[in-house]
Specification:
globular, seven-stranded parallel sheet
Length: 437
């Protein structure tokens, strides 16, 4: 057993601030309340239902993750946030159309208490939305300072010890790194000058990091994946993570692609299309927002299959991704995939996957786990990019110069080995030598 990391105990209440109290945000709150009241179980949550093996298989030490590392209790969460529409949580949940009316009604009292603060929003970054509940300020620095005031007020009003922020708002237009993103001085100058390369999400991230709050990015936006945010995170000892919650179709890709590669089955092409009718689908109907999502979705296969290392199997495979806004489907997304594969002697085969999924059902347990693990990381003195949380993201952030790991099973091993390391346990390598030492 190696030395463990000193981790502060999770005393007091843990504040949760969510930019974007829409379908995912309200479903998360309704789910947490339903679990606390005994109406449901925390399905999909590693922190609540997962276990972790310690030592050799012969030792039979397999505690629950929540009993192994000191994570906060769900009952200690205090949730708030911002939105660009004034609806309270109950009204927003009904409009989102994710949950059955009976499930909303039995936590109505809690949802009605969830009243969003005015959001920071500029329509140029999310062209399909037209918010009505929006902060006003002469500069983006003014808006950032208003957010920091909100954070301080939330902390005092609710008597919370610590806070985590998780972005659950919409996908912004595609942006590349700009000189304004390269240093803290340049970024703060850009905030004061209303630089166009600073979108809504970066203003939230800046406010969080300046306030000492961990920030996780659930959308494919650039947001914290720029040098200035990494510098702020390191300077202030704050964990950051992202980007883009791994739900739906990409989740399937990171399950299937490692299997093809493990068995050395070749791939000629992978065609993916989605239909969805919620606000996310409406936003992604804009080509510039879709470009941001497309970049996130397309990168997965290249990194998992490594065509440069396996040219006979994966060189020049064709990969196409489409997202289609189809209002009748509502929040019930359909992800359809066609894989053209080949095996022994080059014989052709196909795999077809039709995943009738719900992003706003798959995302909330990710939000919960990120809140609890990001808070754990902060209490363990872990700052900067939390690559061990790649398990939850389509486009995992990495330290500069490193390629991201997309294989779901390697990601899970990295996550659990990080938890083992925190507590001074040996990492699990699956060498198969348990009976020979």
């Amino acid at each position: 057993m190696s030395n463990s990391i000193e981790i502060q105990e999770p005393k007091g209440k843990l504040g949760v601030l969510i930019p974007g109290l829409g379908a995912i945000g309200t479903t998360f709150v309704a789910g947490v309340e339903s679990i606390l009241r005994g109406y449901s179980l925390p399905y999909g949550s590693l922190t609540q239902m997962g276990t972790i093996r310690l030592g050799k298989r012969t030792e039979n030490r397999v505690p629950a993750i929540k009993d192994f590392v000191p994570i906060s209790d769900m009952k200690d969460l205090v949730i708030g946030g911002w939105d660009i529409f004034p609806d309270n949580g109950y009204e927003a949940a009904k409009k989102a159309g994710v949950l059955k009316e009976s499930d909303i009604e039995r936590v109505k009292d809690r949802l009605e208490q969830l009243k969003p603060m005015k959001g920071v929003f500029d329509n140029k970054y999310v062209k399909k939305l037209h918010g009505t509940w929006i902060k006003e300020g002469k500069t983006k620095m003014d808006l950032a300072e208003q957010l920091m005031d909100d954070i301080r007020n939330f902390k005092e009003k609710n008597n919370v010890d610590r806070i985590v922020m998780v972005w659950c708002a919409s996908t912004e237009i595609f942006l590349k790194q700009d000189p304004v993103h390269q240093s803290i001085d340049a970024f703060e100058k850009g905030l004061r000058e209303n630089n166009d390369a600073i979108p809504n999400s970066m203003i939230y991230a800046y406010a969080a990091l300046k306030s000492g709050i961990p920030f996780a990015n659930g959308a494919p936006n650039l947001t914290v994946d720029v040098p200035v945010m990494m510098d702020l995170a390191k300077e202030n000892g704050i964990p950051i993570a992202g980007k883009d919650f791994k739900t739906g179709q990409t989740l399937m890709k990171t399950i299937l692609a490692p299997g093809l590669k493990a068995r050395l089955i070749g791939l000629n092409g992978w065609f993916s299309t989605n239909i969805l009718g919620n606000r996310d689908g409406e936003v992604l109907d804009d080509p510039e927002s879709f470009k941001t999502k497309e970049e996130s979705k397309l990168s997965v296969l290249e990194y998992i299959l490594q065509p440069d290392k396996y040219p006979d199997l994966y060189k020049d495979f064709y990969h196409k991704v489409r997202i289609n806004y189809y209002p009748p489907r509502g929040d019930n997304k359909e992800g359809w995939d066609n894989l053209d594969i080949f095996g022994w002697m080059g014989y052709q085969m196909q795999i077809k996957v039709d995943f009738l999924c719900r992003d706003s059902i798959l995302a909330p347990p990710i939000v919960l786990d990120l809140i609890l693990f990001m808070d754990l990381a902060k209490r363990a003195g872990m700052s900067g990019i939390q690559e061990w949380l790649s398990f939850y993201f389509k486009s995992p952030m990495t330290a500069p110069g490193l390629y991201p790991e997309h294989d779901l099973f390697i990601q899970l091993m990295k996550l659990k080995n990080t938890l083992r390391h925190m507590k001074g346990e040996e990492p699990i390598t699956h060498l198969g030598l348990e009976y020979y030492d």
